[in-house]
From TrEMBL:
TM regions (residue ranges): none
Entries under SUPFAM superfamilies matching the protein: Cysteine proteinases (SSF54001)
InterPro entries: Bac_transglu_N, Papain-like_cys_pep_sf, Transglutaminase-like
Naturally occurring in which organism (per UniProt): Novosphingobium aromaticivorans (strain ATCC 700278 / DSM 12444 / CCUG 56034 / CIP 105152 / NBRC 16084 / F199)
Protein name: Transglutaminase-like protein
Domain Transglutaminase-like: 158-222
Length: 270
């Protein structure tokens, strides 16, 4: 499936920005299930300073704001050829050692609510079957609903709320999998919804490492493993490792951010 992505993020600041730096994880890489045909990034009010691969093998672009700017626009456009690998990514890549994906973070740390969740998990000898059951249980316990959590909500906090979004589902799954002794990580990127071209936002899911298969994806929010409609962009121990945009700025106190994201299938000429 050939997917076209057009992703624009526009910032309007309350006043001139004297200095600003942003770290962008917005460029997918060719890996199992996807091949990047073309990808470009354009900036208005900012300029590219460096590009590198981080410890999780994510492509990172470092940009700096033009001095005194009051608006910044980041636009990504590209074509990615995808196929359905039943969520299987395969062997580990990057510099992050596997044991790091067994360590809990502030966002994934398993507490009493995660332990109660695991107590309700059916006994399964197969790790893969157990993980699919865990995904279904998280989805059952935490309703998908926006406006109840934010980027700093922990897995325990989302379980307490009983509502959350894809980021929360992923963090709960990751924390629970690690508590079972299974390496797990956060993944994010793009998902082409079947009923629309304009998407509300990017998407997040989880990946767990299964012996003989390697990394396998679990989209808890949609109850499936990622298929040809998904484009992987970044992974990490949690959202903070894989966040599409992080940075600092000096000058303006407030900002307004507007995002436009379109993902659609392209016809392949024979």
């Amino acid at each position: 499936m050939l997917l076209a992505v057009d992703h624009t993020t526009h910032y309007v600041f309350s006043g001139p920005v004297s200095h600003g730096l942003q770290r962008l994880r917005l460029a997918p890489k060719s890996t199992a299930g996807q091949r990047v045909v073309e990808w470009s990034m354009q900036f208005e009010g900012a300029r590219l300073q460096a590009e590198y691969d981080d410890a999780n093998n994510n492509r990172v672009s470092l940009i700096s704001f033009d001095p005194g700017v009051s608006q910044v626009t980041i636009r990504c456009e590209g074509l990615v050829d995808t196929n359905d690998e039943a969520g299987i990514i395969g062997k580990h890549a990057g510099f992050m050692p596997m044991w790091q994906f067994l360590e809990q973070t502030d966002l994934t740390r398993a507490g009493a609510r995660t332990r109660a969740l695991l107590a309700a998990l059916p006994h399964e000898d197969s790790t893969l079957v157990k993980l699919h059951a865990l995904s279904a249980l998280v989805r059952e316990r935490v309703e998908y609903a926006s406006g109840h959590t934010d980027v700093d909500t922990t897995a325990e906090g989302a379980l307490a709320a009983g509502r959350g979004v894809c980021q929360d589902h992923a963090h709960i799954f990751i924390g629970a999998a690690r508590a079972l002794g299974i390496p797990a990580r956060y993944a994010c990127g793009y998902l082409m919804m079947d009923d629309r071209v304009e998407q509300d936002a990017g998407h997040a899911w989880a990946e767990a490492h299964v012996e003989s298969l390697g990394w396998v994806g679990f989209d808890v929010s949609n109850g499936i493993s990622p298929d040809a409609r998904y484009i992987r962009v970044a992974t990490g121990r949690d959202y903070r490792d894989a966040a599409p945009v992080t940075g600092i700025r000096y000058g303006a106190m407030d900002e307004a951010m507007h995002v436009r994201l379109a993902v659609q299938q392209q016809r392949v000429e024979q």
